[in-house]
Design goal:
Length: 245
Amino acid sequence: MAAFTLSLVSAGQNPSGLPDIGRTLVSARSFDEYVAMFALTDEDMSRSILDCPGGAASFAAEAHARGMSVVAVDPVYAAPAQWLAEHAVAEAVRGNRHTGSSVDSFVWTFFTDITDHLNRRTAAAATFGRDLAARPSTYVAGSLPRLPFRNASFDIVLSSHLLFMYADRLDQEFHVAAACEMARVARREVRVFPLISDAGTDTGELVDAVRDGVTARGCTTAIRPSPYEFQKGGDEMLVIVVPET
Ligand SMILES: C[S@@+](CC[C@H](N)C(=O)[O-])C[C@H]1O[C@@H](n2cnc3c(N)ncnc32)[C@H](O)[C@@H]1O
């Protein structure tokens, strides 16, 4: 069995049917994707929001254009802005190739096809790059599980495509510590999407461990359906409600 697993890995295959993503992608989801993934309501969007990790998403940029208050945090923001703007677009292309190598692993409702995916993700990356140059203070360099913010700094923390998604390289201890840290900087709630891994590994135990970890800190949790499903099976979010202080 071990030799079989090893040969799967060396052949670049995962149980999900997707090839190995390689280094953690700095992906570029759009405002519309965030609204759909996290089922954001008008009331949610009137709150102060932390995008953690922001990656090359255009959520903060597009939110600002709508008068919203969004800060993004990611370790990659320590990089020079010009390099990062170019890297964001290159990563959108890399992510599109990854998706295109296994189109049947995805649900083609949000995106019409692989070309639409490329166009929308590169557009989001370009929007991110322009906003990074125009409003650098929105993009804070920082890493989970230790964020550079005071307790209860934001009403809502949104976390897309880091926890659970990279369960092949981020262990249980990291997941629990990262969720507790996001709850620390949130005044109201944390939403994490999706609850599946890119590699197709079972994330059930990890989700349970994260729920137990934040519950021990006084939070309550729920798993809620998301109206957005792109990677097959990725149609739920974890909602962590922070106790009032
Ligand atoms: C797949 S991207 C998701 C970006 C964005 N949320 C989106 O959905 O498009 C994952 C991001 O996690 C960031 N990352 C990696 N390790 C991290 C850590 N320890 N803490 C916070 N972010 C991290 C990477 O730099 C990368 O930008």
